[in-house]
Amino acid sequence: MTKSLKPHYSAVVVGGGQAGLSASHYLKQHGIDHVVFEKKAVAHKWQNERWDAFCLVTPNWQCQLPDHPYDGADPHGFMVKDEIVAYVDRFIKKVDAPVFEGTSVTALEKAGDVFSIETSIGTVTADSVILATSLYAQPFVPRAAERLPDHITQIHTADYRNPAQLPPGGVIVVGSGQSGCQIAEDLHLAGRKVHMVTGNAPRCARFYRGRDVVDWLADIGQYDITIAHDGMAKKKHDTNHYLTGRDGGRDIDLRKFALEGMALYGRMTGVVAGKMQFEPNLKGNLDGADRVYNGINALIDRYIAENGIDAPEGGPYVPLWQPEGETIELELEAQGITGVVWATGFTPDWSYVGLPIFDGTGYPIQRRGVTGVDGVYVLGLPWLWTWGSGRFLAVGKDAEYVVDHLATRLEQTRRPLKQAANG
Question: What domain range is 35 assigned to?
Fold first, then answer.
């Protein structure tokens, strides 16, 4: 049966990822008529923007989509790509959202007492709008990429699948966040010569004192801390800690990789005449990542001591390797480099939003998903409210709060109309 657009909805959801689907789940529970517009396909990123060896970084038990918790046999394991896609597919079928796939939202404006939403298949109005498009709309590649020699193959992490995708030779991975470090490891394990360009991303132990660090942090209450706590509002711009769930989970230690032949550099500053240039801050980047690593472990040490928990001994990480100097320039052809993987993140696309909901950096001003424009909400952002916001762990809780707020608002705005109609 072919779906058709209605002229008006109580709610419109923009984005059909885990956040948008979670919103639809709760809108259905409230009996609120709504529609979901998805530019590509529902849960497109899980299907099409993950590499072959991709797996969860957090343990399976943290998969807590609304009424859809992980129920497999390995709660402390890490689902691989196909298992994640299957988990999400089951959620998609369970929600059965009223979604229009392949539909772009091109304009969102206020139109009197309602909102006008212009899409690639027509224009509708709505009493409320939930923007669930996240911060990861468009792959970001720095302009320096334009100055690389033509013979070098360039791909972004969104398009990386496996080492065979890249021609034989050395590979530069630019960016040491979660994806960059995991892809560098993927190439390294395949025997490729990897050149890793580092940044200020922190790292975290996988296991410490007999348990997964995530389990310790959950017990301590770190996942319940909100941006309302002192000093936490800035977290929305933090880079994720790098570690991996691959092969049962382990640390990612760039110093260990260096001992095994991976070349490490400071932050990239540009490309000139076939040479990539770097800041002399490799040591500072490695030391900074280790400080965070040891700081998290020290937090666990304090928790164990304060609660008298019997656990194996711990202790600070001792660096396995130190750079002998700082490389500030790399001649690509001389080093046999044939490929570059840009692990430089993504940028949001709020271009369609014609409403005053953003701060000076282009980030939505919101409180637990509620913006300053009455009836407009955001979902799926990192640190929207807690550490788990936007992830499988807490995106459902965020969606429930937002939809409860939306439902209350609808009831309050419609009550005077009902009273007037009843005379």
Answer: 8-137+348-421
> Residue 383: which region, alpha, beta or left (left: phi > 0; alpha: psi -120 to 50)?
left
β-pair type (153-156, 337-342): parallel
CA distance 66 to 73: 20
Is residue 3 situated within a structural domain? no
Within-domain flag for 208: yes
Number of domains within the chain = 2
- pLDDT, tens digit only, all 423 positions of the chain: 457 899 999 999 999 999 999 999 999 999 999 999 999 999 899 989 999 999 999 999 999 999 999 999 999 999 999 999 999 999 999 999 999 999 999 999 999 999 999 999 999 999 999 999 988 889 999 999 999 999 999 999 999 999 999 999 999 999 999 999 999 999 999 999 999 999 999 999 999 999 999 999 999 999 999 998 877 777 777 788 999 999 999 999 999 999 999 999 999 999 999 999 999 999 999 999 999 999 999 999 999 999 999 999 999 999 999 999 999 999 999 999 999 999 999 999 999 999 999 999 889 999 999 999 999 999 999 999 999 898 999 999 999 999 999 999 999 987 665 555 555
Do 316 and 360 belong to one domain? no
Judge if 185 and 333 occupy the same domain. Answer: yes
Judge whether 119 and 103 are in contact, CB under 8 Å: yes
| 147/265 same-domain check | yes
Query: What is the arrangement of strands in the sheet containing 275-278, beginning at the earlier edge strand?
Result: 268-272, 275-278, 329-331
Q: Are 128 and 152 within one domain?
A: no
Q: The pTM is what?
A: 0.95
Q: Is residue 364 part of a domain?
A: yes
Residues 291 and 173 in one domain: yes
- Provide the CA 348 distance to its chain's centre, in angstroms: 12
CATH of the domain at 414: 3.50.50.60
Q: Which residue has the tokens 């497999």?
A: 72
Same domain, 171 and 295: yes
Can you tell me the distance from the alpha carbon of 403 to that of 322, in angstroms, rounded to the nearest whole number?
51
Tell me: do 213 and 319 sit in the same domain: yes
